[in-house]
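Q: A reviewer asked whether we had any structural model of the full assembly, not just the individual parts. We don't, so I'm hoping you can provide one. Inputs are below.
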Amino acid sequence: MEHEKLRTAITEIAADMAAETDRGRVATYIPELADVDPGQFGIAAVTADGTLLSAGDANTCFSIQSVSKVFTLTLALEALDDALWDRVGREPSGDPFNSIIQLEAEKGRPRNPFINAGAIAVTDAILDDDNAEEALDKILDFLRNVSGDNSIAIDDSVARSEAATGFRNYALANFMRSWSVIENAPDRALDVYFNHCAIAMSCRQLANAGRYLAWDGKLGPNAERLIPEQRARRINALMLTCGHYDGSGEFAFRVGLPGKSGVGGGILAIVPGQASIAVWSPGLNAVGNSKLGSLALERLAERMGWSVFARGEA
Ligand code: GLN
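A: Here is a predicted structure for the entire assembly that you could use as a starting point for your response.
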């Protein structure tokens, strides 16, 4: 891989994004996120040899929100393996991330692990006997391990802000509890969920954290195995089909890579065998995905020739 080409692309894209005037709108339904300056943009990419290239506000920590759902899914699969799929489906929802409508029709089993209902069910699956602290420690330990950075932490004010206003998520959790899709007390599951959504990371940290998905379950081509190869590939498949809610088709069409977005404006995107990329810009498009983050990934993928649909080298 030519680092110079990637370095130039990232630097130029970051400069273009800094100059953009149409930046989308920051999420306001979590009060603490409403105050984030929409003028920011960061990008970081890690390549096979472990080189990390970045530009813009790549060192600024932001609320990873739903990007955390990739990591909780990884841990839940570690704990339950295929039994997880008794509780959560694997189909795109075609509905907004916080939609409740399918849940009733489908007997409390969420469509996929990345919509809110599915992610709450996944969180419940890694929660033993209502022990929220232990579950959160497990999530943080995993993130610190895969990113190689022990400083990663939860932003308590964001977690409290969502706990005070997340009425829709309480409704989803209670409804799922009524079907025994979640097993712990809904409040406990949500406590862990709100806290892991409130983890703060920079693009540099997040790009490092995604490495195990770029290299079939290892942090690099020659690194030790963390999760089975097939599991890493399947998480990528779900990111491609469900990672951007009702914008998943559009993201797959434009970017052609597995990606997971969060309402904090972050996106983790994976180029299998080539790179793990994190972008962040707080302004969102109409379906709750980072507007400039999506645009930057589209441009980067195009410039680098990256796509999971690209013809491989013979
Ligand atoms: N914590 C947020 C919520 O539950 C996550 C949503 C998101 O990032 N799309 O509403």
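A: Points you may want to mention in the reply: The two ends are 16 Å apart (CA to CA). The longest strand covers residues 42-47.
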